[in-house]
């Protein structure tokens, strides 16, 4: 790593990934300088993080909270701004080295685009960025020589396996899934699950949105789409296998039949730290695997009858255009409605399917069309949710 500190921006710093990223950064003050922290509404935690990291700038994206938040920043060195436009402006005009994109949902796309256009390296933890606009995002990455480094444990695993392959071509990507909390439940049982039950992931500690997506297997569908764009692999060469122990985070099969797997404890600080320190590794406080106590590792095919979201994601990816954006944006609204108790768990997929059938398809969308697709899909999803509630 270069001698000077790496200047870091953490977008979504008060969320699950963002909090863990702050933990990583404060562990290595000699390596990192925090140029920017951005949060949606949790300004109290944002102020604490700014103090801990001595951040140069912070943004509270909900502009109406600025006046309430400002006094918490008055005694420190951190300059406070408000609104998403401020996030984009700071990304474009500062000399940030790495932007950790971990905002929840579609909201993460606009600042990621700003970072890429200004040639910043983006450590990508927000799935919706590549799911909604993968082709456009990868084009921007190439045009502006702005690297994308995966943070998701599965894509980080693939990335790490490829680093050890010395340029050998991957023949197949194998993405592992824990199976979520309802891996053994019947479809009838899943119709009555509560948000509290769905938010109890058996292996990982994650934010609400990604935890529910993991329970439906939509999260794995998103990861297939991400892998398609990150690694330039046709979707038919990207497989999903259920691995309940969550020890192997993903695998790469090469053309000679050899398979490389990345293994580790289910702790997101490992891939977050690797993305921020890449290409070097640093010591970490994370749990070490004790292979003698693991017992055995098991694998099984995903059940797409009980978890149809995975097949839906493959189908949307095959359609191309704005189909994945429609799916992702409808899912965002449906998951929110489920968490709020407005629709049953199994209705999440109903909302997505109807949105895919009714929102206009665009074969070659530009960024403006993607933003409009997001708006239309969320509006349609709300209409569908209202019908289900009645």
UniProtKB/TrEMBL annotation:
Give the matching Gene3D superfamilies. 1.10.1740.10, NAD(P)-binding Rossmann-like Domain
Q: PANTHER family from the xrefs?
A: 1-DEOXY-D-XYLULOSE 5-PHOSPHATE REDUCTOISOMERASE, 1-DEOXY-D-XYLULOSE 5-PHOSPHATE REDUCTOISOMERASE, CHLOROPLASTIC
Q: Where is the 1-deoxy-D-xylulose 5-phosphate reductoisomerase N-terminal domain?
A: 8-134
Entries under SUPFAM superfamilies matching the protein:
1-deoxy-D-xylulose-5-phosphate reductoisomerase, C-terminal domain, Glyceraldehyde-3-phosphate dehydrogenase-like, C-terminal domain, NAD(P)-binding Rossmann-fold domains
Q: What's an example GO BP annotation here?
A: isopentenyl diphosphate biosynthetic process, methylerythritol 4-phosphate pathway involved in terpenoid biosynthetic process
Pathway(s) this gene product operates in, as recorded in its UniProt entry: Isoprenoid biosynthesis; isopentenyl diphosphate biosynthesis via DXP pathway; isopentenyl diphosphate from 1-deoxy-D-xylulose 5-phosphate: step 1/6
**Catalytic activity of the protein:** 2-C-methyl-D-erythritol 4-phosphate + NADP(+) = 1-deoxy-D-xylulose 5-phosphate + NADPH + H(+)
This protein is called: 1-deoxy-D-xylulose 5-phosphate reductoisomerase
Enumerate the InterPro entries for this protein: DXP_reductoisomerase, DXP_reductoisomerase_C, DXP_reductoisomerase_N, DXPR_C, DXPR_C_sf, NAD(P)-bd_dom_sf
Q: What is the lineage of its organism?
A: Bacteria, Pseudomonadati, Bacteroidota, Bacteroidia, Bacteroidales
Which gene carries the instructions for this protein? Answer: dxr
Q: What is its EC number?
A: 1.1.1.267
Task: Name what cofactor the protein needs.
Answer: Mg(2+); Mn(2+)
Q: Where does NADPH bind?
A: 14-17, 42, 126, 128, 207
Xref: Pfam families: DXP_redisom_C, DXP_reductoisom, DXPR_C
């Amino acid at each position: 790593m270069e001698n000077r500190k790496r200047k870091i921006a953490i977008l979504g710093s008060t969320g699950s990934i963002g909090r863990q990223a702050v933990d990583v950064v404060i562990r290595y003050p000699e390596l990192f300088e925090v140029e920017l922290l951005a949060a949606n509404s949790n300004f109290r935690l944002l102020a604490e993080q700014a103090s801990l990291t001595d951040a140069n700038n912070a943004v509270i994206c909900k502009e109406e909270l600025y006046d309430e938040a400002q006094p918490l920043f008055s005694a420190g060195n951190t300059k406070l701004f408000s609104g998403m436009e401020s996030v984009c402006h700071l990304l474009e005009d500062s000399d940030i080295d790495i932007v950790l994109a971990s905002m929840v949902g579609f909201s993460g796309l606009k600042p990621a685009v700003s970072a890429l256009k200004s040639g910043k390296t983006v450590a990508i933890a927000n799935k919706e960025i590549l799911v909604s606009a993968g082709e456009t995002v990868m084009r921007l990455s190439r045009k502006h020589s702005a690297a994308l480094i995966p943070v998701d444990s599965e894509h980080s695993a693939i990335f790490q396996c490829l680093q050890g392959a010395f340029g050998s071509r991957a023949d197949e990507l194998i993405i592992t899934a824990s199976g979520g909390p309802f891996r053994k439940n019947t479809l009838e049982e899943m119709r009555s699950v509560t948000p509290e039950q769905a938010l109890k992931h058996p292996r990982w500690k994650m934010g609400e949105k990604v935890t529910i997506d993991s329970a439906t297997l939509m999260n794995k569908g998103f990861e297939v789409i991400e892998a398609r764009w990150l690694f330039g692999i046709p979707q038919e060469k990207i497989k999903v296998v259920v691995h309940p122990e969550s020890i192997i985070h993903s695998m790469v099969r090469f053309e000679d039949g050899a398979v490389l797997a990345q293994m580790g404890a289910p702790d997101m600080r490992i891939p977050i730290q690797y993305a921020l320190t890449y290409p070097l590794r640093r010591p970490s406080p994370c749990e070490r695997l004790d292979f003698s106590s693991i017992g055995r590792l098991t694998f099984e095919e995903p059940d797409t009858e009980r978890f149809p979201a995975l097949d839906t994601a493959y189908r949307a990816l095959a359609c191309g255009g704005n189909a994945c954006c429609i799916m992702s944006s409808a899912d965002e609204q449906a998951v929110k409605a489920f968490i709020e108790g407005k629709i049953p768990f199994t209705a999440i997929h109903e909302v997505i399917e109807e949105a895919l059938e009714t929102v206009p398809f665009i074969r070659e969308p530009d960024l403006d069309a993607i933003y409009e697709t997001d708006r239309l899909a969320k509006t349609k999803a709300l209409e569908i949710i209202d019908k289900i509630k009645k």
